[in-house]
Structures are given as structure tokens and as C-alpha cells.
Protein 1
Amino acid sequence: MNEILEIEKKTLVKPDPMVPFLMKIRKTSWDTNDIFSLILEHDDDNKKTFSFKPGQFNMVYAFGQGEAAISISSDSSKDTSITHTIHKVGYVTSALSQLKKGDVIGIRGPFGSSWPVEEAKGKDVVIVTGGIGLAPLRPAIYYIFKHRKNYGRVILLYGARTARDLLYRVELEEWTRKHKIEILTTVDRSDSSWRGNVGVVTELFSYIKLEPNSTFAMVCGPEVMMKYTIDELKTRGVPKHNIYLSMERNMKCAIGFCGHCQYSSNFVCKDGPVFSYSHVKRIFDVREL
Amino acid sequence: MEDLSRILRSHPFLQDLDEEYLNQIVGCASNVVFHEDQSIFKEGDEAEKFYLIRNGKVALEFNGRDKGRIRILTIGPGQILGWSWIISPYRWHFDAHAIEEVRAIALDGECLRNKCEQDPNLGYEMLKRFAHILEMRLNATRMQLLDVYKRV
């Protein structure tokens, strides 16, 4: 009888998506002065059941404070841990930033759609990102590196507020050395000490030449930045259906039930966060209600 | 001169320019090199030239007084440095210096203005191209002003 119940538990009864499971913090680190990463360890049960696709997010629960929707920023092929890179901006993220190695947090997920890494095989990939927008794209970048010979040129255009706000700086250098990726970074503002590019991320398009019909674009950042980026991609002839973007809305339940993240006929938590631009083109300029 | 025509033609700013216009402006062009940290122009100076950047990177800065020197833009290969040559009173609004060795084609502003006056079609063509650059820079400046990466 117990055996049958156990089998039912494993096969028939799906875990309640509203109930968090526990993960232990293996490591915390500050990436910039207001962005930090939590590396979370699976217990043995989670290891067997948890997997995610690049671009998906979790609801991260700071006990006593609440939940926040946070993209997963680690390699989706690793089954021992996941990483969340988090901007400290509100109560929940502030509480998360105080946690230490060994502390336990709640996780629900993974939720949502993913970057079109399979569809982009055989094509060039241009990744355009700003600020913390690099975090949700990092799993897609890892995936591409793992299957590097299946892709053509891979280009990363990355903008940040200042040089101090550039994420994963050591890794960026390593990616260039090891993975045949063209990386161009820029910052919006700078003093004279910075030797890199200054200007908005869209300015970087003037340094690259795209083969528009064989290019997939993945874009993540503030909506204004994505709007100008999409304008640039369209000007350069990249087809709308090859442009993907990650939308951010006020996600609460993460299963398309509560309606907080309704985006016209879509729910960002369930139908997104990654959308094809051709799918959301008409509503892209509609403000959050 | 033929070589300079070819170089001008290879720059994105002029690559689709009519042969007739290219032949007119090539006489105003010269090859220039700026070494790392060399000043190219200073705010308030006469804007005698503009530059088609071929290699290297130029920083545009202004003196923010108590905020120190503020770098507002870098300009690199394929881009244009300077539009003040076309707008009276032809004075630079910023300082520019090379932050790495820069190779560029300099176009003499007065020479080009004279040619534009003589041939309004050429003048209109140049204005259209610079209006496009100005629009892009204005949009970029607006985006910078929005400070989109700042979370409050």
C-alpha cells in the first residue's frame, strides 16, 4: 500500500505550484553595489525533479517578507545548484540581500517561457542587453557555448549605467577568450578613467554588421532600451519573428491565475516572460496598468 | 587621390553617396592620425573639420566644473566625429581626444561649406546625412537622460 502511495506521489500527484520548496544558500556575492547573486543548493529530492530552460524564472521567497519573481542566471545543465542574480530594490530583495551562506529560502518554479535557443541553431545570434538584463540571458549564453558549433556568429551588446555596474566582468573576459563570442560593452555615463565605450547600448550596432535574415535577436533590459533596440534591429532588417524579448511585469502567482501580470491577452508569468516580438508588437507600447 | 576616394567610399557615412558628389568632396579630405591621449579639438575652438573615424576611439567630454570632466560619448570606427562645422557659428561644443590611436579622414569644413554653397544639391545631401546623425545623437542623449538602468 505504501509503495503504491509512493508511486502515486511520484507520478500522478504533481507538486502544488503555489507551495515553495526549500533551498539552502551555498554562496552569496555582490556583483555590483546593488546587485548580488545567491547560489542555491538543491537537496537530493529537488535534484531529481528540478530543471529549467534558459529565460525561465522562479518565485523566490524570503520568509517573513514575501516573494519576488527572479530569473535564473545559472547554467541550465547544472543539476546541483542554481543562481539568482538580484537587484536590491524593494523589501523582498533587501531581505534576500541580508541572507548568508547556510540560510534557507523558499522557491517556487521554474515558470514561464524560454529563449529560443533551439530555433536559433544554424543562425547568428545577437544578444542585446542592458543593466541586470544580462542575468536572464546568461543561461542562454551558457547553452549556446555548450552547443557552440551549432550556431554562427554570436554577438553580445551590453550596456550598463556606469563601469561599476557592469555584471560578470571577469566572466565576460573569459567568454571572449574561450567561446568565440564578440562582446561589445558600453556605459551610459563615465568619467575620464574608463577606457571603454560611452553611450547607449544601441550605439554599439554601428560597430557590427548583421546578416539580417540569418540572425536571431534576444533582447532583455528596461522597456525603453528594448524599444530602441528593436527599432535598430528592424532598421537593419532582422525579421520581427526572429526578435525575442523578455518582459517584466508585476508577477505574483506565477501560474496565470491572479492576473497581476496581465499583458493584453497574455499573462507575462505564464505566456512570457520571453515573447517573440511579432507576438507582442501591437501591445509593446502599452503601459503597465 | 584615387586612394582617398576609395577610403571615403568605404566609410558607412559616404558609401552610397553619388560619384559626382564624392568627386566634389574628395578635394576637401585628408588622412589624419591621432595618438593615444592626443587632443583633437577643444570646446569653444573653431570647428574647422569633421572626421570619418576609420580605426580607434575618440572620447567626447566636457568640463562639468564641480562634477569634474564628464565623458558623454565615445566615437569609433564607422562613425562621424563633429557636426559643428555645418552649423553657424562653427564652434565646438565639447572637447575631443583620442583614447587609443585613431586613424580618420578629416574633411575641411570651410572647403566643404563652399562646395555646398556652390552646389545646393550637394549641400542638401550633406544636410540630410548630418540631420540623421543629429537625430541619432539626440535620441541617444534622451535615452541617457532617462537613466533607464537606475532603479528607485
Protein 2
Amino acid sequence: MASVATPILEEYAGGTIARAQVGLWRDGFRRLRRNRLALAALVYLTALLLIAVVAVFWTPYNPATILPNTLTYLGPSAAHPLGTDDLGRDLLSRMMQGAQISLIVGVGTSAIVLTVGVVVGLIAGYFRGWIDNVISVFINIFYGIPGILVAIILYLVLGRGLGNIMIAISATAWMDMARLVRGQAFSIREREYIEAARASGARSGKILFGHILPNSLGPIIVQATFVIPIAILTEAFLSYLGLGIPSPLASWGSIASEGYAALPLEPYMMLWPAVALSVTLLAFNFLGDGLRDAFDPRQRR
Amino acid sequence: MLTRGTLIYIAQRLLLIVFTLIAVSFLVFITVHSLPGSAFESERVHGKALQLVLHQYGLDRPILVQYWSFLTNAIQGNLGVSFQIRGLPITPLVMRELSVSAELGGTALLITIGLGTTFGVLAAMRQNSWVDYTLTSIAVVGYSVPSFVLAGLGVLIFSYWLPTVTNGAISYPAIWTGTYGTLVELSLPAIILGFYTSGQVTRITRAAMLEVLQQDYIRTARAKGLKSRVVTVRHALRNALIPVISILGPLVISIITGSVIIENIFGIPGLGKEFVESILGADYNVTVAVFTVYALLIGIANLVVDLLYTVVDPRIRY
Amino acid sequence: MTNPILEVRNLSTHFFTDDGEVKAVRGVSFDVAPGETLGIVGESGCGKSVTAMSVLGLVQRPGKVVGGEIMFKGRDLLKVTREELRNIRGRDIAMIFQDPLSSLNPVLRVGYQIDEAMYAHDKIASGDVERRGIDLLKQVRVSDAERRINDFPHQFSGGMRQRAMIAMGLSNKPDLLIADEPTTALDVTVQAQILELLRDLNEQTGAAIILITHNLGVVAGLCKRVLVMYAGEIVEEGTVEQIFESPQHPYTWSLLRSVPRIDANRGHRLLSIEGLPPDLIDLPQGCKFNPRCPFRVERCFKESPPIEQVAPAQHAACWVTMARAYAEMGAGTITDTSPGAASGIHPAGRSRPPTEVAAAIAEPIGD
């Protein structure tokens, strides 16, 4: 993190600003460590990640296989700790695969949003003029449109698949990030140290990625963290509506949907994805809150 | 206080809404028409007969011509006809569904604002106490627990576990029976929908209250010897409502998003259910119509919010 | 002196923060006579505002009055019920604040905010409130008061807002008006108008005024008596003439030397006070001014000086006092005001030279 402070240190002989910068990150991590909810969330999410990684190599049964000689809607048992579903598939295996899919969609979407949003936002905020106008008009038109509607249409146009679902969710989610980065670029651009850098002949690229980006990193990370639960939730919604991950792949949303239909027969089937989704989204939201409190000084009080 | 400036502002905003509607409907129109499959596939219409049907609906024309005729008709209030239910005019269909969705969404909005501001104020007044922690936790749970989870829980309780208690008055079949829409039946979906978004309102109200309570004018009000209830309500809450109003626009969007899910879960015949059904059934005219109506709703909601600002905050004039 | 209306004895207010207990006000005692104009001066953070807020019970968490008594009309304000205190606030003791823009509620009309103070206390008959609201605005010299009373604060200029604040403060005919930096946020010409207004109102209404400020010029323009605060304590007290003509505490002396004066003698050089006020969590031993005092002696590091009479009606808390400093240390001619410069006392390890401190701040901390 010292690299963030170094260029400023050179420009300010006094050094107090540099200390404030380094202090910001150090303070941030200290505050994060003190936030027990955020830490608990981090522990849970690490465990979930482990499960998802394990699921790549091993699940108790093949999650897609309709097991021979197995009853459907089976309650928890030694052979099937979470029971079986409407077709007699092992629910634990399907839940593990669901974790994998949720995390891939969440993190993948966040990565796309981060890349597109940061690049577009920086371009709009730094160069301004007609580029900014075009981008802003586009964002303003779509800003009010519920992302899920766009995602549904786009997903069906692109065709079903894990990659396309991430693209479909990103289609509107990047705009928030772009607005944030653009705003940051607008305000940071005006500060003295950018003037100084420009006066000393630094090129646009260096100013953008060497000064503006590092100085708005806090809010960007926070925003990127909050994209993850939104993406997971949207995927679950789509899968719940039967518009999501193609069967026989298991998503928490589709398991919940099947479980909803089976509610009078077997409440367990709805219970597992409900709990898993709720806790995971809660964890990401707590983590995001913790990060914001720790690293986004504008939001701090 | 409709000054000349305000009227000009409203006119400009309405113009912007129209422009947005054209842009959005155009993009959606182009996109849905590029979807694979057509509404008539399931009817096994082939060859000459298909050509005839396509011609009948004007679908054999160039896409831009099709859009132009959609647009000119839409301006006159005619949103075209459905493919699925052949020839059914869409405008009355959408209007009926809109009234159902509006009832659901309006109730949910009231619940959201009522619950959210109350929780937010209480949490802020008792900052860092158990009250605060409980209410803020409920808020985070509110927007972390997917609405279909709450819906499942609600249905499980009311339809399966308590049918004897309610004497079957509240039941949520997956398919509309035609008797839907009583206040009692609407209450569960509306509460679930409202609870989800109330978390955001709680958070922003709490944050705004905490910020406002730090302000110098609150100190002034206390120094005047006003009762603490008066300070809280008259001086703090009125100012704290300003940021709350700013999220009303996003709130309407959240509720529309949520209603798409909720309507499909509970089988409520509103716009959200229609949207999903139309896109699955390749009934493109309906998809475009519903999408455009949503965009219009949001545009109007945002305009109303901007005008509400001027009521609550005298510093804002257009 | 007639019976004082306000007697503050040994007031201590601390703030319980995560970093430690900030001892913002420690053992402050003073009196205010009816109709008197008392100035409290000191640098920001010296506890003058906290003292005023403590009097009205407006100190917010994590702050807390930890000791002392505040006698007002025979009652200890630290012991009365919340409801009784609420009734005194704005009715018997009114307060106006530094920033008139942020001190008025932006969403309520100015007139409403003035009237509200009167409705809250039933001292003014409710039928007279609106009439009096307009009269008050006229009294504080807001022109076109009948119309402006319906304006919102943002439609007022800075000076007018402060006038409205004063009108609000005077609305219930209080016995005491506490003005916390009332002119700091205003233009110089407006400052003078507000001070003149306060002076006139003091004469007309007979309300005593406590004026809290860091600006010595403001004190000279309004007050008869002055308290000088440093690091949460009163270090000197006297009439305005005594404080300006023969200050006895080195801090008061330094303060006066640091402001340009039009009546200054030739050769009266402008000197700054070196160093920073002490950390109120971890206070220095002995006199709290010793780390910055040019005249400190060994005793200053060991014992805290009590406030003692140095002249009729003048008190100072100093082991040396300026009388001795002039006589023995040549205070009249010194140009170096660094700590211990005049007395030659530089105890090893007690304070680092400024350059070293600056270097410590500049030192980047690795992550």
C-alpha cells in the first residue's frame, strides 16, 4: 500500500498528506479487524469457497444423476445428509454445485463490472467533453430500468450458459460502477496533486492509473463487493423463474424453485437453498458494510 | 407553488421521459425481435400458412418499419396485439395488469416507507444500543433474504400449516383463479415485497438521522429549550427525510424488480408475471409494451420525487 | 459586586473517547453578575465552548460533566431534572452559536424558529408571540422585518442570520445570553455591527452576556471582564483593562503579542506562540503551559500553579507572573519566544525541539 502514498510524498515536502494516505489503509485494516460481523462473514465465505472448490473434484454423488433405487423427496439420512429432490438426486451434491455456481456468478460478474465500469468511468471522468456526454446520456437512459428485466431479455438473446448469465447481469450493473468512478475522477482531477503531476508533464495514462485510480480504490472495492450479492441474487431469481442456469446444472435458485413446488410434501428441499442463499448474501453484505466503514472515508462517521 | 420555472422544469423532464421511452423501446424492440423462435412455433404453423400469419401481423416487414408502426401506434395509445392470444389488443390487457401491479406495489411502497423510516429513526435515537443493533440487523436481513425465500416461508405457514386457523381464507394457489386481488390475499405478497426494500430505507433513514442529529441547528433547537420529542420530529426528522426522498426513485425500481419475482411466485396477474410469460412465449409485442410501461412508471416516479424535494426542502427550486 | 446570577464552581467536563479520556474542562470557576459582559478567550480547543455547553447541559455523549456545580438563581443546574433544565434553556439562559447558517434549521421559516422558542416556554403570552417575533427582528435591525420573517434561512445573508439567532435568543427576555463565537463566521464589517448590536441590547435589556471568542479584539469591543482559558483551565481573570494593559500570565501575554495592534509602540514586535496546545488526554505535569512558555522555571514542571490574586480584581495561575518576567527575565525586549528562551530552562527529555517533532510526523509509516 506504500506505493499509493509515495508519489504524493514526493510532491509534499511536509509529508503529512502521505501519512494520511498510508494511515487510511492501515486504519482501514485495523477497523476491519475490529468489525466482528465482517470477520465472521469472511470466515463463512472462506468456508463456502472451500466447499465450492471441493465440489469441482468431488461430490458425494453426481449432482445431475438420477440415482437408481432411490426414493424422491427423501428427508435427511446418513446416505443423503440433505435428502433427495423431486427426481431422486442427492441434494447435498446439488447444493455443493449450487455454491460453486453462485460464487462463480457473483465474483465473475463483479470482475466484469469492475473492469468495464472502471475503464468507462475513468474515460468519462478524465477526458470529459463529448466522450463523457455520450456515456452519460447512455447511462442516464438505462439508469432507471430494472436490471432484472434487461438481464432476462439479454440472457435469452445470448443463449443460456454460465458466461452469458454473467454478461446479462453485468449489462446494467456496470453503470453504477462507472458513475462512481466518473464522479471520483471528476473530483480527484481537480486536486492539487493532479495539477502538480500534470504540470510536471505526466501523461494521461499515468495520471489515470497512477493517481486517480489508487485514490478512489476504497469506494471502488466497496462497490465491487456489493455487486457480488446482487449478482448472486439475480442469478437465483432467474433460475427460480426457470430462466437461469440450464438444467441439469444445479443452482440454489432452481433447487428453491423445485422445492417451492414440493413445499407441502417436503419442506427441506426449499429450506437448504433458502438458508444457503440468505446466509451467503448476508455475509457479502456484512463484508461490504465492513469494507465501506473501513475504507470509504466519505461514508464514515 | 407551481412557479413558471417549475413548469418549465416539468416540461423538460416530460420531454426527457418521452425521449427515454423511445430509446428504450427501440432497443428492446430490436433485441426481442432478434430472439430465436417465434410465437407461432408451438402452433405448428409452417410454410405458406406461417407466411400468411407473419404477414397478417406485419412481421414480414423490415424491422425498422415494424418499429415505426409500433411507435406511431403507441403514441396513440395502441400498443398492438398479442401473438399468443391471437389478436388480443395489448393496451387494455396491460392497463388491467398495471392496476393489479400498482395495488401490490403501492401497498408495498407504503409498508417499505412506514417500516423503514420508523426503524431508521428508532435505531438512530438509540445508536449503539441493542435496539439499534436489532433494527439494523433486521434491515440487512431484509435485503439479504431473497423474496422467494420469504414467500416460501409465508406460503408454508399460511397455506399449509395454518389453513385451519385462517379457515382457508388465505391461500396462494400457483395459478390465478380469477378471484385474486382481495386486500387480505394481497397483504402477504405486499408485506414480503415491502419488507425487502424497507431495509434500504432503514439504513438511509438511520444514517440521515445520525447526520442530522449532529447538526448545529439541532443544538440550537435544544438550546431553545424545546422538548426532545419536538426536536426529534420537527427539527431532525424533517431534515432526515430529504435523503430518504432521494432513494424513492431507486426504491420504486427495487419494488418493480421484486414484483416481477413475487407476482410469479404467487401467481398474481400483474405486469411482472406477464413480462416473464410473454418473453417465454415469444409474445414480443407484449414484452415491449410491458417494458415500456415500466420505463414510463419509473420516469414518472423520478419526476415526482424531484418535485417532492421542493416540498420538503425550501432550498431547492427549479 | 451584587449577587451573581451564575456561579460556576470547579466545573469539569470530560469526553470519553476510544483513544482515552479527553479532559476538556478541569476545575473551572467563575461568576457572572446581572447585566455583566464577560468574555472568555482562548485558542480553539481550550475548553471555552465546552464550558458554555456544560452550563446549559448541552454536552453530548461521549462528553459528560464529571464534577463541580453550576448555581443559577440558587439552583444547581447539574442537579435539576431534565425538564427543569429544559425550562431554563432558552427562557432564562439563551445561547447563540458560531455559524449562523448551520445553526438555523434550513427547512423551517425564520419567523417560525423565533416564535417556536417563545411558544416552548409560555413566558410570552401566545397571542403576542407573532407580534413580538416581528418586533424582535426589528430590534436586531433586520430591515423589512414583516416580510423577511416569512423567509427561509437560506434567503438571509450571514449577518442577518446571526441577527435572527440573536432575536431568537432574546425572545424570552433571558437573564443571561451566552454567545459562542458569534462573529467568527462573519465579514469584518458585519462583525462590528453584530458587536454593536450586542452592546446595545445588553444596555437595553439588561441581559448579562458571556462572549466566547478566540478574538481578543472582539472581547475588547464588548466585555468589561475577561477570563483567559488554556488547555481546559482558567489561567487568568481580570478587567478588560488589566488583561490588555498588564497581563500577568505568560499565555495571556503571548496571546496579546501575537495580534497586531494599531496602538502598539514602535518596536512592539509581533511574536508567535511556539508549539501546540497539550494533548488533553495525556496532560503535562505541573503547569499545562510549561511546554510552550518562554518564562518557565523548574517549579512549573512539578506543581500546577493555583489561581491567585495578582492585583485588585485580577487573578492569574502562574508561578512566575509577568511582573517578575519583566523584572528578572527582560520580557520587554525578548525576540525569541521559544520554550524556556527567557528563563533558560530546557530540562532534558521533557520536550523535543520543534524540528525533531516535525521529522517524526513526516516519517512515513510502512504498512
